[in-house]
Amino acid sequence: MRSLVLIGHGSHLNGESAGAVYRYAELLRGRGLFDEVIEGYWKEEPSLRQVLKTTASTDITVIPMFISEGYFTETVIPREMGLGHQGPVPEGGVARVIGGRTVRYTLPYGVHPAMTDVILARAHEALPDASPQDTALIVLGHGTTRNENSSRVIYQNADRLRDSGHFAEVHALFLDEDPKVGTWPEVVKAPRVVVVPFFASEGWHTLETIPEDMGLTGTVTAFPDHPHGPQQVFYAKPVGTHAAVADVVLHLAEEARGAGGQGDPERGHEAAWQTFLERARAGLRVGEVLLTPELGVFELRHMLDEGLPGGELVTLVTPEGVRDRTRVTDGGDHRPVHTLRTLPRGWRAVLNEADLRRAVHYLYPAVVEETYAHSCHALRHTPWATTARRQTGIYAKVQKATPAQVEHVAQEVCSGCLRTRLWAGERLTFTFLDRVPGGLPCAEACTFLVAEVREEVSGKRGAGHGHSH
Amino acid sequence: MRSLVLIGHGSHLNGESAGAVYRYAELLRGRGLFDEVIEGYWKEEPSLRQVLKTTASTDITVIPMFISEGYFTETVIPREMGLGHQGPVPEGGVARVIGGRTVRYTLPYGVHPAMTDVILARAHEALPDASPQDTALIVLGHGTTRNENSSRVIYQNADRLRDSGHFAEVHALFLDEDPKVGTWPEVVKAPRVVVVPFFASEGWHTLETIPEDMGLTGTVTAFPDHPHGPQQVFYAKPVGTHAAVADVVLHLAEEARGAGGQGDPERGHEAAWQTFLERARAGLRVGEVLLTPELGVFELRHMLDEGLPGGELVTLVTPEGVRDRTRVTDGGDHRPVHTLRTLPRGWRAVLNEADLRRAVHYLYPAVVEETYAHSCHALRHTPWATTARRQTGIYAKVQKATPAQVEHVAQEVCSGCLRTRLWAGERLTFTFLDRVPGGLPCAEACTFLVAEVREEVSGKRGAGHGHSH
User: Fold this and answer.
1) A268-365: which CATH topology?
2) What is the ipTM for the molecules in this complex?
């Protein structure tokens, strides 16, 4: 049995951020090469701290879904996941045994040589009849002073594509370092030019800065009076959103696996879910969710919608449907923390037992595993001081927060959360497994609270107390 | 059967505001002269728009718990309660028949002649052996240019107290108009001086401005070198918080009643509560509350606390206990709107049937009456335009809000509320009386939403979107 874990950045504010990771997870589930594909995030749930607990097997491959190496892939992800590794990840990844699970952590997908194929695929989408006679290719990177690997990967891809002979010329150009993208009319000679942005997703750079720097007006732009004669530019979509990235992920996973054996079901995880299912078969309330067994399937809905005829509610039939419906509040706000008491109403889900597990995983990520562990006295609490000490970068300053500041922010942020703050000394004797719906443990401060404490320390947390990230 | 309704201002931000009205309601309940004593507020619940619906009888006396006449007593309260009256209220009050109820609306307690006794009581508290030989009394008013009655009442009280012969001298002095309080060393000759602030409650004026203007350092201050010789000042508490105000309220109520007859139980109200109790006897969920019948009594608790042993919860045994426990969120924030999904956890209430009614009235004011009316197709909806048109003073500007602005604010404010916005065209087919816990009607925009729309129109509603009143 094998688990694949895809790691994204996520966002406390914006629901779009996790979308790309969702799509790859679904593509990879479709391939059927892993028994499960789980998503984890820095700023959403399951968090980097929780995601390993939510995997069902003892053989885990973790892929950072980032376009380049850097602070997240080398510092944040390994640290938060407890991989006992910091700094550049070697080719083939690193492997650790953590709590009985073999965890392999790979390079980000963007540095894998197979990305050359993705660039080529994007180029052919933009200009299907690109030819070595008259077509130039620009591989366009961000470029940065913070990580030299970032531009090296662009050059390597350009080299491979030049060697492939598919194009008359291949250039590596950058937004933020030389050779700059604005120089293209001087360096590119071919009459047809395909531009492939080596970016993770559509965004400000692909939609604004690149078109502006290059003078593009759409997917195809004509330049009649250029130094090397008339030119036509075909602007491709960013590589990071191409379906072929799923193949790159599989390459990475296979290379990381090496001669590794087959994993087994992880016993604690299985025990947690069997306990949950046993309760569920008799009907159960978990947080704000009412779970009712019905002739071999299960119905989930908001507790406040109990008793409503099914026809009054939107009926969902997949775990992904539940995930998407409950990612926003009834007011349309993003829900980075799923245990906040803001579960939307107006829906029901009808699911079989396997889908129920996945739906509950999406509804309340890591809650079944953590609650079961708590009931077995096996949930480790991380006090605030330890959480704070671990922080780096812009979050390092939370180490300056006084206990009173932390408690003040927690009073506001956590009072709307179902979880009981064990890490702050709160006591939880009965959980939803004991049929107390609101009994959910909180083992450590989440990144949302950490971010709010940072705002407090920075003096930016006014009456409105929203943080901006 | 007779109902007494006490009207306070209330606050969207501050839980203290309603406290004084609560205390008088409890004192007056203790007197037993009315079958019920109900509190209503402009900025809390039950609101001025709802409070009449929550009264059980057809004979209602409404007392504005204000120290002086003015905008609230003459404009806001009569308008919001639908009394068909605007402007100064005659002595003896006004009476109207509204929806089968006889409603008498009186002057505010502060203008009643019996306040003279309250001033005297406060004076004797501050200086029990005050004597006509050596003691002067200062009746201290705010004074204002907006309502001349305000100072007239102070003069009338001073005149009556002068005539009573209890003091060597009696002076009427003011904070904001002549004769100013700062002139007291010139005008007051007696060696002992009692100062009684004619204010509704302790606050900035009684705690800061008056002591500063008079040079007071505590409840007793000595002035050895004054124009008329050494003087000692005894500073009394404000009149508005004296228990004897309850007697003033009863005087007002009796005078308003005149030759009025005895009221009857209001049938719609009684039907609503009988329907509710019938459901409750079989166990019921109302909003976030779980209601369980237990051997002749009822247990109430937060739904999320279902299944917790009683010993894990704070046990409440009075409706007032429930009221006070649920007036703030788990984060300690004031809850001006009771149907927001922020009901605190951690408590249970054990109550008999009569107390259950009052506790549910406090938990979800007007919800039983409005939901029952809705289920009988008798709940009138007030569209936004009508609500906006009614607004005056600083809220008149909500009339400028576009439908999109109103909807934008409502999306944010109302999405956390249990109620379904019938006034905005939302549909509610099943209510908690049909055993759908979250099914609660909203007949019109509440003052909280009106205030938020005002902030939006004023451009003051940022990401933090808290209004400041």
Assistant:
1) Gyrase A; domain 2 (3.30.1360)
2) 0.81
